[in-house]
Amino acid sequence: MCNVLVSACLLGVNCRYNGIPKKNEDIARLIDTEGIHLVPVCPEQLGGMATPRCPAERRGQLIINAAGEDVTAHYLRGARETLRIAQLYHCSVALLKERSPSCGSRQIYDGSFSGTLTEGAGVTAALLRENGIAVFGESEAEQVVERIGAK
Ligand code: SF4
Description:
The chain is α/β, with parallel strands linked by helices. The protein has one domain. Helices cover 27% and strands 23% of the residues. A 4-stranded parallel beta sheet has the order 2-1-5-8, with helices on both faces. A two-stranded antiparallel ribbon has the order 3-4. It has a two-stranded antiparallel sheet with strand order 6-7. Strand 3 and strand 4 form a beta hairpin. The protein is globular, with a radius of gyration of 15 Å. Iron/sulfur cluster binds next to helix 2.
């Protein structure tokens, strides 16, 4: 059995910034997949943020919300708490929501709030990687299943 950390919003948990659930059926199916045990987390809620909340984007080392407020401390706290849960559950793999300033693993919005994507990771995905956890995006569920050898 492999514990896989997963963005809670991908399972339909109502934790997204806009308060609108967005379940990913491919990820939700993994709940019943033999050999996988999902560990759901929402870094932004773990960082003390409410749902709904003002959208935010990464701008270098900072996270700035659409109102121009620096919310970096909340996002970093959420990243640290997420890492704590990953380590408690011995998760070596994470399957996270793409493009989020917390969970994004390859591309994120560029901080201009213009819908422009750039190469980079959210702060939680980056911290997990720094600590040896293999981070995959939601579109890579099949690769996670193959890696684990689950059925
Ligand atoms: S922080 Fe991650 S888990 Fe929480 S709503 Fe955003 S993408 Fe989903």
